[in-house]
Specification:
By secondary structure, the protein is of the alpha/beta class. The strands form five sheets. It has a seven-stranded mixed sheet, with helices on both faces.
């Protein structure tokens, strides 16, 4: 594969923090690289250096002759007064770009629901993100460097982008496609979306930051293979650490055997102990999202009763976001909320939080409900930009009871992964991910029993996401999460519902895949009005059965459906057994990149088969009743 760009022994220090220390990297034709690492470690910095938008303190970044590099920043800075057409196509005539099938595909995937002549100042966050992405994707770049491209995209947009990038940067890989170039160029993407990393990337870079010595570690395979390889690496490190701890204890015990003895010890023994201490590797950034106390919940939490919300549309017509909606949230309910951009997800959260009031109907709030909302906007901390991290938490509460012990604000901040020196950092100097952590901490110290989380994964690194999921796993209160992150929704939510833009809330027994199938099949319009009596959520029509609700299946159809259920369940059991075997095997051969990659491919095939069978099972079960 042709070499496109590279970094040779680059180093970069910001203030007293060495982000990169003699790091060398290479990007070849056909590579799709995912970049992960702790917040503030320097992931965005790596992209800017590779794009030659920033200069390292030492070392150099080289590009192949005539290389065209496109960079997507985290913030979509679009010129005020411009239209989407101006942003995406500049001064090009419409017939020039409209005749290009690739450009039309980008329009269909990202801009189908927006007016090309709309002023960018009127766009939502998701629309601005899609416009910035579209501008980059319609241009003829050899290398794309994308910084958090999935932020503000809905699950449908994330799925489209993943498919587009796989096709565009297919490369010449091994296996059945060996020797056949599917797409020229390379991709480097920083993202916290683990499904996206697995779906798109064929190798990973982990930026360790100051805690890991300013290194960038490489791994073959997607995110799942990276997690397994990293786990194996840390297991080996732990084994080595145990051995060195034992050796260190022996050395120190030997050195402590009496003052007279110490003065006569051979110098080489003193040097050996000093070497052991000097080589002790620094610990990784400690992160522990603590399960703080929550206010006691009563029987009633939040009820929406026949709620309607409408806004005037751009053409003067009334746009109905929620139409006669009834939804009952009980104690301990855990909902994932998905839907198209502009369907009203954030509005629904604001309604539950009491920030907006419905035009019709009412919101009934339980007497003991203590609601906290994590918004998408990290800029809400701008008014506190002059304060230090620990001071922001102290304004909310100086001490918090955790596990029967009282922790100070400084101790709590450190548990959330802010090292002692970072806890004294001004808010204005925090990275986007660190701001997100601070937002979450401000919520938790208030001891809420209802959490409304609007895109909580934006700007968080994968380690923080794992800690957040661990926290939410044991959350004793009521939870509503708006997110495009499939991993998060599937792990922390018991039930998923969707706003499809028709004013109703639809139940999704099949989760995100059922939602995407509804969107693809065009059956996202409302078909029922009453819905489930307990929750008020309209039930989605079975996507695969092909039967209307009123149809009565014949005995032959019922018999066939029962046989299908038995067959599917047997196959699913075998798939689960094989998946377990593969995970065990991947852990055993974690050091063999090619073996891990082959097993990862087999695992993906099994996951795809399992998803298909689960859809068939749902359809058959719906038929049987």
């Amino acid at each position: 594969m042709a070499h496109l760009l590279g970094a040779d022994a680059i180093s970069l220090t910001l203030g007293t923090r060495t982000l990169l220390d003699a790091v060398s990297l290479g990007v070849d034709d056909g590579m799709r690289i995912g970049v992960v690492g702790p917040n503030g470690a320097g992931k965005s910095t790596v992209l800017r250096l590779l794009a030659q938008r920033s200069t390292p303190d030492s070392g150099r970044v080289t590009h192949a002759g005539g290389l065209r590099v496109g960079l997507l920043d985290q913030r979509d800075e679009l010129p005020a007064g411009s239209t989407i057409r101006d942003i995406v196509h500049g001064s090009d005539d419409e017939h020039t770009w409209a005749g290009d099938a690739g450009v039309r595909a980008v329009h269909a995937g990202l801009l189908a629901d927006v007016d090309l002549d709309a002023d960018v100042a009127t766009l939502s966050g998701g629309q601005r993100r899609r416009a910035a992405l579209a501008r980059l994707l319609v241009e003829d770049h050899d290398v794309l460097l994308l910084d958090e491209p999935t932020n503000h995209l809905d699950v449908e947009g994330v799925a489209w982008l993943a498919e587009h990038l796989r096709a565009r940067f297919g490369g010449a890989g091994g296996g059945p496609n060996a020797g056949r170039v599917q797409g020229r160029g390379a991709l480097v993407v920083v993202t916290h979306d683990r499904w996206f990393l697995d779906a798109v990337c064929t190798r990973m870079w982990e930026v360790t930051g100051t805690v890991g010595g300013g290194a960038v570690l490489g791994y073959e395979g997607g995110y799942a293979a990276y997690v397994l390889a990293r786990a194996e690496r840390e297991r080996s490190t732990a084994t080595s650490a145990t051995k060195r701890d034992n050796l260190l204890r022996k050395e120190l015990a030997w050195l402590r055997r009496g003052a007279p003895a110490r003065t006569s010890k051979p110098k080489f023994r003193l040097d050996a102990a000093a070497t052991l201490i000097a080589d002790e590797p620094p610990p990784r950034d400690p992160l522990e999202l603590t399960r703080m106390a929550t206010a006691r919940q009563g029987k009633d939490v939040l009820d929406l009763e026949s709620v309607t919300i409408a806004f005037p549309g751009p053409d003067g017509d009334e746009r109905v976001l929620l139409d006669d909606l009834t939804w009952r949230l009980g104690p301990g309910d855990r909902y994932g909320l998905i839907g198209v951009n502009g369907a009203g997800k954030t509005t629904l959260l604001r309604l539950l939080a009491g920030v907006v009031a419905p035009q019709h109907g009412r919101v009934k709030r339980g007497k003991t409900a203590v609601v906290a909302t994590l918004t998408q906007d990290v800029e809400e901390l701008d008014e506190l930009s002059h304060l230090r991290v620990v001071e922001v938490v102290e304004r909310e509460r100086r001490t918090v009871a955790v596990g029967g012990k009282e922790l100070t604000a400084a101790q709590l901040v450190e548990r959330l992964g802010f090292a002692r020196e970072r806890s004294q950092t001004l808010v204005r100097d925090l990275s986007g991910g660190e701001r997100r952590r601070l937002q979450l901490l401000r919520l938790l110290v208030g001891e809420p029993n209802v959490l409304l989380l609007d895109e909580p994964t934006n700007d968080l690194d994968t380690d923080t996401l794992a800690a957040l999921e661990d926290l939410l796993d044991g959350w004793p209160g009521t939870l509503v999460v708006v997110s495009h992150d499939r991993y998060l929704l599937e792990r922390v939510c018991d039930r998923q519902v969707a706003l499809l833009g028709d004013g109703s809330l639809r139940d999704l027994p099949g989760g995100v895949e059922q939602y995407l199938e509804l969107r693809r099949s065009g059956t996202g319009s409302r078909t029922t009005r009453g819905g489930d009596e307990a929750t008020g959520v309209a039930a989605a029509q079975p996507a695969a059965s092909g039967l209307a609700v009123a149809d009565r299946p014949s005995q032959a159809q019922l018999h066939a459906a029962r046989k299908a259920i038995g067959r599917i369940e047997r196959r699913l059991a075998k798939i689960a057994q094989r998946e377990e075997q593969i995970h065990t095997r991947m852990a055993d051969v974690a050091a063999d990149h090619e073996a891990v990659l082959a097993l990862d491919g087999e695992l993906r095939d099994l996951v795809a088969e399992r998803d298909r069978l689960e859809e068939e099972w749902l359809a058959a079960a719906e038929l049987v009743g």
